[in-house]
DNA sequence: TACAACCATGATAGCGCTAACATGATAGCG
DNA sequence: CGCTATCATGTTAGCGCTATCATGGTTGTA
């Protein structure tokens, strides 16, 4: 009775209507329905209206997995960052996200936890998803990762710092930022200047800032002592201050690797009754809002993080759209914010 | 000469080796190679070794898109939040991310910008990716979105607040949190208590806290005036303080909707020379680290955000693995942190 | 009127993988 | 020793969509 075929193997993924069913309902072929949805200009306006009506009526949701397989490209953008606990990366992701999402791209977020092996794993996975592009924080990758990416023909964008990039690169010069702050501290008359950072091995961009800082001090004939903490955050900043005063009683200025540390130290200095900047100057890096709300306001360097994400995304999109890329590298710069803490 | 078939239509996605090629290199069939990679226990150990060797040698990267299409399931978890600018969601995402990633799931992150239409769009897109589950912040959705999800047979997890959920639910009782803080302020002897929040229409969880707050005050026969700001952040907190003092000169305590506002106000009070808590008490919500580093420490309510993410992810994973779910709903609670600001 | 150029649509053949079923070999058992 | 149970592997047929080529109709042009 039933019109059922012998059908030895049935395997429908779900009860969701398929494009074919939409096409039948609209009285066109599947490919026309496909075009009506994805390349509207290739289809007669009236035909398209019929297809859209059928889509609406059947509650059709396109199977993007099938579409990606057939077209060998997804609208995924792989984004790899070393940490989600750090505002800095979050703001870059925000910039990327709003720009990519507006163009219909979907971000695949990966977190390496500062582990290059993990990065390699993530890259492998993301390649398996036929991502349209890869955005990764930083220029340092494992050899395996480089090899994998070398054979990949899609745009690769490295953000955060500038240097010898695999493909596209948007960032800022951290060494120069370190120099800039060191010069500022020298101008303020400081001669006993300490740098305090956390895990500079992982947070190697902070390490680059230290190098710039050190370069400037040593050129002036000064020492550039370093205290390295084993973790970051406000608490660590407070602890770092204590340690700094113990080990370098004569210190007149501390250049912290970031605003979290600097803010923690500054607030702790207030509790200890240390007058900032008269007895001790404190500087940070990042330009977080909190630094401009405490008294004295924190001297720091502001990096345009969200803009960095937006610019990176725009450049990737330009490339994906086949437009000419003028420059592979963009320096987003930074801005010295002089507060009352130095 | 060439062994080329007549091949009317060729369409290889890339030069990447395919599973079939790996299988040939290992001298097995494609399905065996597939099993060697995805169901190792179903394949003889020696065979598997040969396959893995071939994978290594050819630099094979599995095409996850094809795999998902064939198996009608991806290892994607859709995560929808209203904003990335708010630490609160970031920390929940962190908890989700670490837990899901450890089990081999990939998060698809969507940002609604507090727009339920946008949420609907995101849900549609994510369904199209055959996600294994959906995690969304909050219980409020558009009707279209509810309809779409009603016909979906995968786990749905709503996080942040508790209430009548679609499926699974992990969160805390914001009304009770508002009550809790109001009671604390009453205990401290305050009778002129003001609530200051931002965009309570969007941030309706803050609205729930206000309702709890108001309930307690009104039960005591007190008024519960509200000032609503048009944006959040430290600046807004400072501005909120100014406005509060203008409109309610006799206010003795301000209950801010979150720590950003409260911290901004507290730091601004210091600049204005207002003694906290003697002249004015200030309370917040969230339990951000900065609140415990300023002087006086901020009285606030800490919510276990990262834990909320971890728990939500674990529960979803339990469900996906077919294990029994004891309870659909989990209250992660909150903790009143009494600082010196009240 | 003949020809090219374009437009709208369709038939076909995959994309790379895995579910479902099938098969043959080996082990277990009375 | 014949029977079933288990294991290891293979064959087949899709998953739902789109690239490619083909086709027929319409318009423009000399």
Automatic annotation (TrEMBL), chains A, B:
Protein name as annotated:
LacI family DNA-binding transcriptional regulator
Keywords assigned: DNA-binding, Transcription, Transcription regulation
Q: InterPro entries per the record?
A: HTH_LacI (IPR000843), LacI/GalR-like_sensor (IPR046335), Lambda_DNA-bd_dom_sf (IPR010982), Peripla_BP_I (IPR028082)
> Sorted alphabetically, which Gene3D superfamilies does this protein's record hold?
3.40.50.2300, lambda repressor-like DNA-binding domains
| Segments forming domain HTH lacI-type | 17-71
Instruction: Give GO terms: molecular function aspect only.
Output: DNA binding
Pfam families for the chain: LacI, Peripla_BP_3
* Protein species of origin: Billgrantia zhangzhouensis
């Amino acid at each position: 009775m039933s019109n059922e075929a012998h059908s030895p193997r049935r395997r429908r993924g779900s009860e969701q209507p398929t494009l074919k069913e939409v096409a039948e309902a609209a009285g066109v072929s599947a490919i026309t329905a496909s075009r009506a949805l994805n390349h509207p200009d290739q289809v007669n306006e009236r035909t398209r209206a019929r297809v859209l009506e059928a889509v609406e009526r059947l509650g059709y949701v396109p199977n993007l997995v099938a579409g990606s397989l057939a077209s060998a490209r997804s609208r995924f953008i792989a984004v790899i960052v070393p940490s989600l606990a750090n505002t800095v990366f979050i703001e870059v992701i925000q910039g990327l996200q709003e720009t990519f999402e507006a163009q219909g791209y979907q971000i695949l977020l990966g977190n390496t936890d500062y582990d290059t092996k993990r990065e390699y794993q993530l890259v492998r996975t993301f390649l398996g998803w036929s991502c349209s592009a890869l955005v990764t924080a930083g220029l340092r990758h494992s050899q395996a990762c480089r090899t994998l990416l070398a054979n990949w023909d899609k745009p690769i964008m490295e953000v955060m710092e500038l240097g010898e990039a695999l493909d596209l690169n948007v960032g800022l010069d951290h060494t120069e930022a370190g120099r800039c702050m060191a010069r500022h501290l020298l101008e303020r008359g400081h001669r006993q200047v300490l740098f305090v950072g956390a895990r500079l091995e992982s947070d190697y961009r902070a390490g680059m800032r230290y190098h710039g800082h050190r370069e400037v001090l040593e050129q002036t004939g000064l020492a550039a002592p370093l205290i390295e903490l084993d973790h970051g955050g406000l608490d660590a900043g407070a602890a770092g201050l204590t340690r700094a005063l113990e080990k370098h009683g004569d210190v007149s200025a501390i250049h912290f690797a970031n605003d979290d540390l600097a803010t923690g130290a500054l607030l702790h200095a207030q509790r200890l009754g240390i007058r900032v900047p008269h007895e001790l100057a404190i500087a940070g890096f990042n330009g977080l809002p909190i630094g401009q709300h405490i008294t004295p306001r924190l001297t720091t360097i502001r990096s345009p993080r969200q803009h960095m994400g937006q610019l990176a995304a725009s450049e990737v999109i330009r490339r994906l759209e086949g437009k000419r890329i003028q420059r592979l590298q963009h320096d987003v710069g930074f801005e010295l914010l002089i507060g009352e803490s130095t």
